[in-house]
Specification:
Number of domains: 1
Order of helices and strands: HHHHHHHHHHHHHHHHH
Largest sheet: none
CATH topology: Growth Hormone, Chain: A
CATH superfamily: MFS general substrate transporter like domains
Helix content: over 70%
Oligomer: single chain
CATH architecture: Up-down Bundle
CATH class: Mainly Alpha
């Protein structure tokens, strides 16, 4: 059984195959984020059952983020070296096992240990997805491919509140971790059985190029022009994934059932933002003749301006208005995230795309980790409102960096052929 057929004589794969691959990688991303977001959904329960503080919860979150941060370029390099089929199947099996083991935790320390194991393995998801899009999509359609596969991050986060809380209420929180983790094993087997790359490059040569080029990438100004905006943008997604349920519980006084009913809405909006952001770039190229890179940057600027809405959450008194502003933030962030990921496909050569995206992701998750620690330390003193306002400022700064990098007679950011 094979999902992928041989390429046509023009070198372009059949369109049904391209979208089949996107559907498969999106499914893997959904299960990845469903397992990942179980912690944030269960945070109020875990604090009560395991008896840890908000600060200690931030350490649990930080354990995942630190491991994920360090492993993104490593996972990307491994995938560049061994190929998508073997590399992604292996990492999916590992994250499934780590997710299930969350159910054995009996303290915040043991939970942090399994959280770190999850971060080490789940770090492969985005570099793998970006590499898939680079293999299968034409240059002008890459943002569309990234938008659709990146929607899996939002769908997984969207499903987490109702699915995880439903499992927890019916069978207990330990069973919720086991069930969401186990689903990844089935996907890993499916990926191994059906995925084939559109063309087989000689592995030894690709390996040598990948290892050599990784050191070159970090010395390129183009890398930092993408990495810094990603560093500034990622705190938003980490906050939405790991802190919003606790915020709704502690500050807006919503119970678990209410959280299950409403906390998925920002992630639905995020799906729309990611997909529409992907289509925005080729539309700008067709309608206004915008260049490839500048069409991506224009979408990021629009998303950064929309981030002003969640920055104002501290000004509204009603919980439902807060959720509405979170929805605008989810839409805006995924537009930004998808287009930044697309830039890594545009700017870096094919044989290093997973590793390059991993390095950019490492920069992003460093920002997310630092901000999560700040939330844990400051939310009980200065409140969440000021912290949410910082997210809007961060994204506007990131957009300004990209504008500068893509402007002028010799812009830093230039697409490769």
């Amino acid at each position: 059984m094979e999902l992928v057929r041989a390429q046509s004589t023009t070198g372009a794969p059949p369109s049904w195959t391209k979208w089949g691959v996107v559907a498969l990688i999106s499914l893997g991303t959904i299960l990845n984020y469903l397992s990942r977001n179980a912690l944030g959904v269960l945070a109020p329960t875990l604090k009560a059952q395991l008896g840890f503080s908000t600060a200690q919860y931030s350490y649990v979150v930080g354990a995942f983020q630190l491991a994920y941060t360090l492993m993104q370029p490593v996972c990307g390099l491994i995938i560049d070296l061994v190929g998508l089929r073997l590399g992604y199947a292996l990492f999916a099996a590992l994250w499934s096992a780590a997710g299930m083991m969350h159910g054995t935790a009996n303290s915040w320390l043991s939970l942090a240990g399994w959280r770190a194991a999850l971060g080490f393995s789940e770090a492969a998801a985005i570099p793998a997805g970006v590499k898939v899009v680079g293999e299968w999509f034409a240059v002008e359609q890459r943002s569309v491919g990234v938008g659709w596969f990146n929607a899996g991050t939002s769908i997984g986060a969207l499903l987490a509140p109702p699915v995880v809380i439903g499992l927890s209420l019916a069978f207990g929180w330990r069973a919720a971790f086991v069930a969401t983790g186990a689903a990844g094993f089935a996907w890993a087997a499916l990926w191994w059985l059906v995925y084939r790359s559109p063309e087989d490059a000689p592995a030894p040569r690709a390996s040598r190029i990948a290892i050599k080029e990784m050191g070159v990438i970090v010395r390129r100004p183009a890398f930092w022009s993408i990495a810094l905006p990603r560093f500034l943008a990622e705190p938003t997604w980490q906050t939405f994934s790991f802190w919003v349920p606790l915020y709704l519980f502690q500050v807006r006084h919503m119970d678990l059932r209410s959280i299950a009913l409403f906390a998925w809405l920002p992630f639905l909006a995020a799906d729309l933002g990611g997909v529409l952001g992907g289509y925005l770039s080729p539309w700008l190229m067709r309608r206004f003749g915008a260049g490839l890179v500048r069409s991506r940057v224009a979408g990021i600027v629009l998303g950064a301006l929309l981030m002003i809405a969640p920055g104002c959450i501290g000004l509204v008194r009603d919980a439902y208005w807060a959720i509405a502003l979170f929805c605008v933030g989810g839409f805006a962030h995924q537009m930004i995230s998808g287009l930044i990921n697309t830039l890594t496909v545009d700017v870096f050569p094919a044989e290093t795309r997973a590793g390059a995206n991993g390095l950019v992701g490492m920069a992003g998750w460093t920002g997310g980790l630092l901000f999560s620690l700040a939330v844990g330390a400051l939310s009980d003193t200065i409140g969440f409102g000021w912290l949410f306002a910082c997210l809007a400022v961060f994204d506007i700064l990131g957009a300004a960096i990209l504008i500068a990098a893509s402007s002028g007679p010799r812009p830093v950011l230039q697409a490769i052929a």
